[in-house]
Amino acid sequence: MLINQELQTIQSAVAERLLNRSQGLKVAYIMSRFPKLTETFILYEMLAMRQQGIQVEVYPLLREHEDVLHPEAVQFVEAAHFQPFISFPIVRANLHFLWKTPLVYLKTLWDLLRSNWGSFNFFTGVIGIFPKTVLFAYQMRSENVQHIHAHFASHPAAAGFIIHRLVGIPYSFTAHGSDLHRDRHMLREKVAEAAFVAAISEYNKEIIISECWGNYSEKVNVVHCGVDTEVFRSRFHETPYEKGENPFMVLCVGTLHEVKGQAHLIEACRQLQGRGLDFECHFVGDGPDKKFLTELVEQA
Known about the structure:
- With 300 residues, the protein is α/β, with parallel strands linked by helices.
- It has helices at 2-22, 40-51, 74-79, 88-100, 102-116, 120-142, 155-167, 178-181, 187-193, 202-211, 262-274, 290-299, and strands at 26-34, 55-63, 147-151, 171-175, 196-199, 220-222, 248-253, 279-284.
- The strands form 2 sheets. Strands 2-1-3-4-5-6 form a 6-stranded parallel sheet, sandwiched between helices.
- Helix 4 (88-100) crosses helix 6, helix 5 packs antiparallel against helix 6 (120-142) and helix 5 runs antiparallel to helix 7.
- The longest helix has 23 residues, at 120-142.
- The protein starts with a helix and ends with a helix.
- The relative contact order is 0.08.
C-alpha cells in the first residue's frame, strides 16, 4: 500500500514538472495541406498540444479548399501562416539568408536537390517548397518558435530539415503510410538531423531503421494513431444484429484510394457472400478510386 502511494506521488510530481516545462512552449506544425478533412489525426494532435498549455502555430505548405470543415479546425485556419509559392516577402527572405549565410543557404539547397535526385515527385516538390519554407524559417525565428513538428516524411519533413539548417530550430516528424512506403528519397538525411521521429507502427519503425542502415534506432518512437475516447465511446447496448433484427454490418470509413486497401475488403465480402453469409458492407468517403471500387463491387 505504501509503495503504491509513493509511486503515485512520484508520478504526480513528474507530471507536474513536465506540465510546467510546457508552459510558454511554442511549437510549429508543418503539413502538406491544411485544412484537410481526412487528416483528423493532425487536428486532434494539435488540440491535445494546446490542452497541455503549448502554443501551436500552423505552417501549411498548401492551402486546401474543402467544402466541409471540422468545427475544431476553424481556430487553426484563421491563424495559419498560409503563403503562395512566390511573393515579395518570400524573395526578401531568400535574399536575406543568401546574403547573411550564403554557404548554409546554398549547401541546404544542394543537399535537398542531391538527396532527392531520381524521384520526380520529391525533386520537383523541394524546388517548389524551398522558397516559401525559407520565409517560414525567417518568421519562426522572429516569433521565437522553439520546436517544429512535421506530419509526413515527405515534403513536410523536408521543410523541417530546411528550417533547422537555416535557423537551428530543432524539428521532428511523424511518418505515416504512403509517405514512407512509396518513396524514401532523403529519409536518412531527415532522420539524421531530426530531434526524434514518430512512427505509427512497429513495422514503420523497422522500415525507417532499415533505411538508415540500422542507425538512429534511439530516435524512432512508435506513437500509434488513436481517437479521443471522450468523443468516440464504446457501446454498451446490443446491436440490431445481436438482437437478430438485421444482418451483420461492416463499416469502412476512409479516403477511397489504393493505399487504404478497400479492394481487399470487397474481395473478402465476395468470399463471405459465396459462403452464404448475410451481411452488409458500407463505405464512407470519397477519392480517386471511387469509380474503380464501384465497378469492383458490381463485378463481385
